[in-house]
Amino acid sequence: NGRRDDKTDKPRFMFNIADGGFTELHTLWQNEERAAISSGKLNEIWHRRHDYWLLAGIVLHGYARWTDIQNDGAFGVINEPFKGEASKGNFLEMKNKFLARRFKVSALGVMREKNLVKNLSKNRSENMKENRSEFGVNLAYKGWEKSENKVRKARVKWEYSRCKVVLNQLEELLSDMKADVTRLPATLSRIPPIAARLQMSERSILSRLAS
After folding, report:
1. Domain definitions of the chain by residue range
2. DSSP string across 66-102
C-alpha cells in the first residue's frame, strides 16, 4: 500500500548464564526444574523460567518495584508459585522477600557471566592480567558470600532472642491470668444477688419480665 511503518523494533530482552557453577544458581535451577517436570507443575514450582520473567519485569519496571511487576499481566507467571500461600498473614512480605532473594542470586550469575565473557574476549597477551582479575572477582564473590552468611547468622540470632522475649512475656501473661482465675470464685461470692441489688423480690422480677 506504499505506507511506511514508522514503528521501530524494540531490542529483545535476552540473557544467558553459564557461570561455571560458582554461584548457587545452577544447583537451584537443576533441583527446581527437576521437581517441576516430575510433578507436571511447570508454573506452580519456581524454576529458571520464573527467574527469566522476574529479570524481564525488573528491566521494564525497575528494581524492587515488586508490586508493579506482580500486577503486570505479562509477568503473571511469577505469581503462580504463591497462589497456595495467599491466605497467610505475612503473604506479601514473604513474597517480596523471596523475589528480592531470587533477583540477587540471578544478578550474581549474570555478573559472573559478564566477567567470564569479558575475560575470554581479551587479547592473549593479557592472560596474566585476566587471571588476576578473575581471581579478584572470585575473592570478591567469596567475600560477599561470607558476609551474607554472617548477616544471616546474626539475623537468626536476633530472631531467636526476640522469640525468647515474646515467650517470656507470654509466660508472664499466663501467670497473671492464672492468678486472676484463682481469685474469681471469691470475687463472685462477694457480688450480691440481682434481687438484692434491685431491691426487689424474685417474684417481682419475674412479674416484671412477664409483663
Report:
1. 25-121, 169-210
2. HHHHHH-GGGGGGGGGGGGGTTSTTHHHHHHHHHHHH
pLDDT digits (tens, 9 = 90+) for 71-103: 999 999 999 999 888 788 888 898 999 999 888
Helix (H, G, I), strand (E, B) or coil at 128: helix
The pTM assigned to this predicted structure is: 0.48
Q: Which long-range contacts (CB under 8 A, 24 or more apart) does 11-19 make?
A: 13/55, 13/56, 13/59, 15/52, 15/55, 15/110, 15/113, 16/113, 17/106, 17/109, 17/110, 17/112, 17/113, 18/113, 18/116, 19/108, 19/109, 19/112, 19/113, 19/116
Q: Which of 31, 15, 11, 10 is nearest to 107 (CA)?
A: 15
Nearest alpha-carbon partner for 112 in 211, 192, 23, 13: 23
pLDDT digits (tens, 9 = 90+) for 113-140: 777 767 766 654 465 555 555 665 666 6
49-53, 131-135, 178-182: range with lowest mean pLDDT: 131-135
Which runs of E-coded beta strand occur in the chain? none
Cell (9 digits) for 209? 419480665
